[in-house]
Amino acid sequence: MSRASLHLPPAEVPVIGEYDVVVIGGGPAGLMAATAASRAGRSTILIERYGFLGGAGTMGGLSTFCGLHARVHGEDRLVVHGYADELLDRLVALNGLNDPHLTIEDRIMAIAFDISAYKIAADELVLAGGGTMLFHAMAVGITKADDDTIDAVIVESKSGRAAIRGRFFIDGSGDGDVAAWAGVPFDRSPDLLYPSLMFRINGVDPVEAGDAWRTVRRLMEEAEAAGTHSFPRKKPIVRPQRNPIEWRSNLTQLSNDDGSAVDGTDVHQLTHGEIQGRQQVRDTFEFIRSRTPGFADSYVVDIAPQIGIRETRRVHGRYQLTEDDVLNAVDFDDSIGVNGWPVEAHVSGDVAFRFHHAADSRGFNQLPYRMMVPVTMNNLLVTGRCASMTQGGQSSARVTGPCFVMGQAAGTAADLALARASSAGDVDIAVLQQRLKSDGGYLGTDLAADRVAV
Q: What contacts 453, CB < 8 A, 6 or more positions away?
């Protein structure tokens, strides 16, 4: 006889570690948080469910750093620094980094990288400061010391269930898992941004292919206009990798049967999205191979280990970054760094890009520390795409550059909070900003703002 639920008996859970700082999630925000906290001398553990770091850049197959640059009064500049500079240097040493290239109708820069090199460089970055990593462990819950203080995170692995205690926690899970378990309020849009499944094509003749990123888009648009084909979304992105015989492909869009976006917190929808994504890879690649010069002998060399989720929970913080903040290049008194990426909204069948309102804009908004401070919980910061943002703000600040910025600030703030035995919200902002600058960070305070937050 089936039952609606099962009762599991209580069990003793072993504590397998105690740390000053516990970081959950090894994406760009989490790996920078762990780097910053460990470089400050704090015992730090980074918990990651895969066997490598990098988040969407590796497990999602993105293979591109977006948001490290801004178009500042017409000039493309690298504006994300700090430990990100060291990561880029390590990638260069591994021969794993391309020169920056123009993207999105030649309006902003991005940087392609080799995924394997990124995995190695990210390991080295965290380990160099004395950080500890725990791979193949998935956070599944927390315990509290009191209503506003987390005591431990519970993980599941092939070794079983265990607890890791900490004095300070940083939620870089992407989905705001830790914050949600702790009871922090969050938003989840009824119209989520659509996920994609990335894949890579090898065996391309780069000379014959030429500027195939323009050719592929034109051919797909012509085929749709002629009514011979229908593709998952408009504005496909197909670009060369470190080796020009290999190209990355970002052109799928994953939806449920009712047309809604696949929700990354629903295991059934995730399963559906993985299967649908591979079907879209098969169909779109066959079109590209058969129609695009230089691709006749190409083949799919890799499909990303997981679909790339763009949005799920957005945690309520002391400030919510908005689309208006992004488009008006707004400044904040508690700036921790900058974001120059446009609003990139993956809507049904298309991608809507929205750039700064001013034609000769400064090109970036500052990111406030308050967007990482949850409205409840004393020893928790939320960093990365699940930080406190509206959907429009998150459509910009979810990419790699601003996640690097938030992560380094979160790890540094954790050290400051522990030094003063203060809560996350009581960190001395002036001291935090000075620390970030001394560690190479760029706060964007040298250029006049298009608008200052009130």
A: 325, 330, 331, 332, 333, 368
**Which two structure tokens, joined as six digits, stand for 388?**
């406190």
- Please count the CA atoms within 13 angstroms of the CA of 447 that sit on its side-chain side: 21
Q: Token match 């500079």: residue?
A: 85
Residues 220-264 have pLDDT tens digits of: 999 999 999 999 999 999 999 999 999 999 999 999 999 999 999
- Which SS3 state, helix, strand or coil, does residue 47 take? strand
pLDDT in tens, 275-291: 999 999 999 999 999 99
Q: In this structure, what token pair is assigned to residue 153?
A: 């995170």
On the CB side of 312, how many CA atoms lie within 13 Å of its CA?
18
Q: Closest by alpha carbon to 102, among 239, 206, 224, 228?
A: 239
Convert the pLDDT of each residue in 404-425 to its tens digit: 999 999 999 999 999 999 999 9
Sequence-distant (6+) residues with CB within 8 A of 364 are 70, 72, 79, 329, 338, 339, 340, 444
**CA–CA dist 428, 107 (Å, integer):** 37
DSSP letter for each residue of 191-211: SPPPPB--EEEE---HHHHSS
**Tokens of residue 144, six digits:** 């509290």
How far CA 218 is from CA of 179, 213, 224, 225, 406, in Å, comes to: 44, 9, 10, 10, 37
**What are the two backbone dihedrals, phi and then psi, of residue 362, each rounded to the nearest 5 degrees?**
-60, -25
In 71-158, which residue ranges form alpha helices assigned H by DSSP?
Answer: 83-93, 115-128
Distance set, CA 127 to CA 35, 36, 178, 333, 348 (Å): 8, 11, 24, 33, 41
What is residue 308's three-state secondary structure?
strand
What CA–CA distance (Å, rounded) separates 106 from 353? 12
One-letter amino acid for residue 361 of the chain: S
Residue 81 tokens read as: 């620094």
Cα–Cα distance measured from residue 299 to residue 145, given in angstroms and rounded to the nearest whole number: 54
Q: What is the token pair recorded at 296?
A: 């006749």
Q: Are the C-beta atoms of 355 and 331 separated by less than 8 Å? A: no
* β pairing state of 199-202 and 299-303: antiparallel
Percentage of the chain modeled with pLDDT above 70: 99
